[in-house]
Amino acid sequence: MDLSNMSVAQLRALQEQVKKELAQRETQERAQAIEKILAIAKSVGASVEELVAGVKLKAPGAEVAPRYRNPADAAQQWTGRGRQPKWVKDWVEAGNDIEGLRIAA
Question: How many CA atoms lie within 13 A of 71 on its CB side?
Answer without folding.
Answer: 10
